[in-house]
Write a structure and sequence with these properties.
Elements lengths: L6 H7 L5 H15 L8 H12 L5 H8 L20 H7 L8 H11 L8 E10 L5 E10 L2 E11 L4 H18 L9 E5 L2 H6 L9 H13 L14 E5 L7 H14 L11 H23 L2 H5 L15 H12 L5 H6 L19 H4 L5 H4 L5 H10 L1 H14 L1 H5 L9
Parallel strand pairs: 1-4, 4-5
Antiparallel strand pairs: 1-2, 2-3
Length: 420
């Protein structure tokens, strides 16, 4: 792009946030990361004191106080010398994808289900985030035994939780409900089925990420399961986790998904706290909102006329540089155009196309030699031009046309061709 191009357009086209917004994002994410520091870290101690005193005595204090009430994660809850289960072993234990397609994994799961004794308890859990309710997150679990649904739960986690947190919470809720069931004394194993692979890998293993307390509580339920009251001939059994491919019409998983969607529409709990994963998402969402608001104010007039939105959907960075440069020049009106050369007194510039018309940002479309008006798009100019210059799909179509016709190399070149 030409160096005279407005800074707002330069930042938008290069997908670089304005400096003040980028610095705010860095500050917000730094404040959010303090929730992951160990309790003995001096910054964690300072943040805890700020929350207790609520005195905004510094910029750091103001950022900490601006955060919603959030969970605290202890990264040193387990000793570093503790031997952890290998991830490959975990994936094998929970029957992870391991190179299989989702369709094949679903078929294998359906074939596996009849091998589970009918007396065992099966819990399907799921999480959902609803955009219709301002991003509220819901959790749902469905419990089966002997082919009968014996428990179903739906509840909301509010707006400050992610689907990851809802999946973990739903698995814990279902497992706790199963442990408290009177029919648990007939069961040997408690099976927990869920379609979130990352949550499935962490349920029985130490976690230092979001919803740490939920995973720890689930492991406590797993410890209590063999100690439950049971019939003399019933084995202690264990809590077993298995991954289920989602959205492939597996009945239990579909029912849990529906329960989670119902939970997302319920009122949020009064004591809901923000999860660690949600803290990061809040910072990104606030950054996007601020950038969009600033773009509405600083966008050049020609960008507004073309209805070019802010964000990656209209980015031309995937196109070849010479072609994208021409399209960006047409967007910004800063390029090899007669009005531009006249404005900056470029005395040696060529102001006319080979067709005899003056060069302009939209000349490529109306040039009689290029014939773009008839061949490039079937829509009227009022619709075709905003589509070609304002959308990624249109820009790709325009790029193909410019490459095929060599419009800016032969028909409307920057410098006149040298003839012998």
């Amino acid at each position: 792009m030409y160096r005279t191009t407005p800074i707002a357009a330069l930042l938008k086209e290069s997908q670089i946030l304005p400096p003040e917004i980028q610095l705010n994002l860095i500050s917000q994410t730094f404040a959010a990361r303090t929730a992951r520091l160990d309790p003995y870290h001096p910054i964690r101690k300072r943040a805890t004191k700020i929350v207790r005193t609520k005195k905004p005595t510094s910029r750091f204090a103001r950022w900490i106080l601006a955060l919603p009430q959030a969970e605290a994660v202890n990264p040193i809850a387990r000793p570093p010398w503790e031997v952890l289960e290998d991830r490959n072993a975990i994936l094998k234990r929970i029957s992870g994808p391991e190179g299989r397609s989702k369709a094949q994994a679903a078929k294998d799961f359906i074939e596996f289900l009849p091998t589970i004794p009918s007396s065992d308890i099966q819990v399907y859990s799921d999480g959902s985030k609803s955009e219709a309710t301002d991003g509220a997150t819901g959790a749902g679990s469905v419990t089966y035994q002997a082919g009968t649904c014996i428990d179903r739960k739906s509840y909301s986690l509010g707006r400050h939780a992610e689907v990851f947190d809802a999946e973990a919470s739903a698995a814990l809720t279902g497992a706790k409900a199963a442990l408290a069931l009177p029919t648990a004394r007939f069961a040997t194993d408690l099976w927990v089925f869920l379609d979130n692979l990352e949550v499935a890998t962490r349920l029985l293993n130490p976690s230092t990420g979001s919803s740490q307390s939920t995973f720890e509580e689930f492991q406590e339920v797993a410890r209590k399961w063999p100690l439950r009251s049971r019939l003399p001939h019933t084995s202690p059994g264990a809590v077993r986790i298995r991954w289920v491919p989602g959205h492939l019409k597996i009945p239990g998983n579909e029912e849990a998904d529906q329960a989670a969607k119902e939970g997302a529409s319920l009122p949020a709990p009064a004591d809901a706290v923000c999860s660690l994963a949600s803290l990061k998402r809040i910072a990104r969402t606030e950054t996007k909102r601020t950038a969009l608001q600033l773009w509405k104010t600083t966008a050049p007039a020609n960008y507004k006329e073309l209805q070019i939105e802010y964000g990656p959907k209209t980015s031309l960075l995937a196109l070849e540089r010479p072609i994208s440069g021409r399209i960006l020049a047409a967007r910004s009106h800063h390029g090899d155009f007669a009005a531009y050369h006249t404005r900056f007194n470029h005395e040696d510039a060529i102001l006319e196309c080979s067709c005899g018309k003056r060069k302009s940002p939209l000349h490529f479309y109306f040039c009689r030699k290029g014939k773009a008006l008839k061949t490039l798009c079937n829509q009227p100019p009022s619709e075709a031009i905003p589509w070609l210059l304002g959308t990624l799909a249109g820009a790709k179509r325009l790029a193909d046309w410019l490459t095929a016709t060599k419009f800016y190399q032969e028909i409307c070149p920057y410098r006149p061709q040298a003839y012998p």
